[in-house]
Amino acid sequence: MKLGFIGLGVMGAPMAAHLVAAGHDVSGFDVHAAAGEKLAAAGGRAATSVADAVAGADVVITMLPNHPQVEEVVLAAGGVLDTAEPGALLIDMSTIRPETSIAIAEAARDKKIRVLDAPVSGGQAGAEQASLSIMVGGDAADFEAATPVFDAVGKTIVHVGPHGAGQVVKAANQLVVGGIYGLVAEAIVLLEASGVDAATGLDVLAGGLAGSRILELKRKSMVEREFAPGFRIDLHHKDMGIALAAARQADVALPLTGLVAQLVAAGRAMGYGSLDHSALLKVVEQLSGRVPAEV
Ligand code: NAD
């Protein structure tokens, strides 16, 4: 297929490279020109603008930070809806608020462009290993049509409902991940303050009912205070905002999500925004007056 790929950052760059490796003709654009050059080195083409990446594409993929960037790239003059061929499929894989995904689908309908929201989980490692989990909102026929794209970058690929549903599932994912990080951080602070070796204690937790992917993958780096991202606190702060806004939209109360959102906001306010989200440990330590280890 002929693909346009917009947003070649931490996630987008390896995903675009996997699509090239799967045999697709990929034109990529990023406001940072160096990212386009990297794609060209991997066998794709560096486009000079959104319109250039989109020209003649069967499928356009966006992997951008947040809804303002998606709105600019998709809805602005010279953007995807302005320049894509009727019948083209736009797959937005960014994590953004569900209402924007729904608004984009409505705007695209008038232009006869099909749209899926398809946020991902699995982080940079998942993007590099083509093992992402992908939660997809939109029409079933469009989901089927997108299978070759999803297969090239992901392993767990599920159609979860209509437009916006993918983003709601991603919001649920992020509130669970944030909550578990907060609790693992509290467990570490309790163990250390009680004079119990945290690494040993967490080994036991990881094998019992408290076990989780986060304990499995991150307990060692958390105890050793290694907080290189990974997934940045700044991005998780955005995602907690999306989860709270979605809760308001659905008229439900999510008290734990609210609390975790405040802890993540505190981490950002304390200057940890560019650290990995496991640096929530530094926030929890400071609440108990314990001095965080230097990073
Ligand atoms: P990133 O900041 O590394 O990449 C985004 C890219 O978009 C950047 O290269 C930026 O230059 C480019 N960009 C911004 N505005 C643009 C525009 N107008 N036109 C063209 N390019 C533009 O972010 P990322 O980590 O790759 O994350 C992308 C999305 O995926 C986010 O919504 C994030 O929440 C989500 N996500 C990230 C991870 C992760 O571990 N990093 C995991 C799951 C989901």
Automatic annotation (TrEMBL):
Name of the protein described by the UniProt record: 2-hydroxy-3-oxopropionate reductase
GO function terms (MF aspect): 2-hydroxy-3-oxopropionate reductase activity; NAD binding; NADP binding
PROSITE patterns for this protein: 3_HYDROXYISOBUT_DH
Domain of life of the organism encoding this protein: Bacteria
EC number: 1.1.1.60
Active-site residues, Swiss-Prot/TrEMBL: K170
Sequence ranges assigned to domain 6-phosphogluconate dehydrogenase NADP-binding in this UniProt record: 2-161
SUPFAM superfamilies per record: 6-phosphogluconate dehydrogenase C-terminal domain-like, NAD(P)-binding Rossmann-fold domains
PANTHER family: 3-HYDROXYISOBUTYRATE DEHYDROGENASE-LIKE 1, MITOCHONDRIAL-RELATED
Protein family (similarity comment): Belongs to the HIBADH-related family.
First-tier enzyme category under EC: oxidoreductase
